[in-house]
């Protein structure tokens, strides 16, 4: 028998952006599952990421009916990574599970994740057994991405693992010490390390609504991941430049030698122009890669908070008792949350 002290608090963190079609179904499916787990109290921390539809209304209604549902309303759309950060910051549980609102991460897996956690795992990763519900293009690009990332970066991302996972409080506390504004959560989760076990699952199709991640957004997400965890694209320009300069030197020596032996050879407009364009292109690509990093340094240097909270519903503690390492400034009713410093 488990005693009262063994009852643990589980926080389920749900980023929601324009999910009014699915949110009712989400609660209807998740709550009975959470209630069925022995010796667990739970809270569902919903982060409204600046939805333009009635998502907030649905969430607030739900939190009024059920005290275990808390709602964090952000001032605008900050993106999934920021919304997830907000939810994880606010979660009070002994373990935290981020989950998508669209029921693509099956809540039926939560009891399995909890069981592995009780067996001693600090992180329980839910790994997609197949990508059958994705388009061919998405499958190919995902496979290529993991290959490129894991080759370029020291940090190895486990393949086909998303944000759906269980993290023990020690892991969550470690995560909260990572100060960066550009938050590639999958990478940050992997970066903190800890003992992980993997549980396979079948990912379902979105239950309603549509994906917020277009091709362009996914491309930027991939760039975010690469630049956050590898400086190889930046450093590689030393070697590319070295190789090009070496080839140029050899070719230049050859031209000089040929001119000395055979005299001046005037034609060569086409080859001059193509070489000029080729090197111009190479330099611009190099500059672009440097720009990707400089832009991120600029964003980090500004030190703006990752998100702003408009209001919390079902708040159980005073705003001043915010998660450690952050400061809270009350601004015209807005709580501005930032990290450390003065
Ligand atoms: N999401 C969010 N902010 C955004 C985009 C998405 O909070 O700017 C949430 C969204 O509501 C959902 C989760 O992130 O709960 C995953 O989004 P989506 O299903 O669109 O992504 P996909 O499953 O297609 O990768
Ligand atoms: Mg989805």
Count of strand segments: 10
Radius of gyration: 25 Å
Summed up, the helix count is 10
For the largest sheet, list the strands in their spatial order.
7-5-6-4-1-2-3-8-10-9
Low-confidence stretches are 317-342
Q: Main β-sheet, in a few words?
A: 10 strands, mixed
Organism: Cupriavidus basilensis
Main location: membrane
Pfam families: Glycos_transf_2
Keywords: Glycosyltransferase, Membrane, Transferase, Transmembrane, Transmembrane helix
Q: Can you tell me about this structure?
A:
Its main location: membrane. Pfam families: Glycos_transf_2. Residues 11-173 form the Glycosyltransferase 2-like domain. It is a multi-pass membrane protein. It is found in: Membrane. By secondary structure, the protein is of the alpha/beta class. Helix content is 46%, strand content 19%. It is built from ten helices and ten strands. It has helices at 20-36, 55-65, 80-90, 110-118, 136-152, 169-175, 185-191, 215-229, 232-262, 269-302, and strands at residues 8-16, 40-48, 69-74, 95-98, 123-128, 161-168, 196-201, 308-313, 326-331, 334-339. Strands 7-5-6-4-1-2-3-8-10-9 form a ten-stranded mixed β-sheet, with helices on both faces. The chain is elongated and about 90 Å long. The relative contact order is 0.13. The structure holds uridine-5'-diphosphate (UDP) and magnesium ion. The site of magnesium ion has 5 residues, from loops.
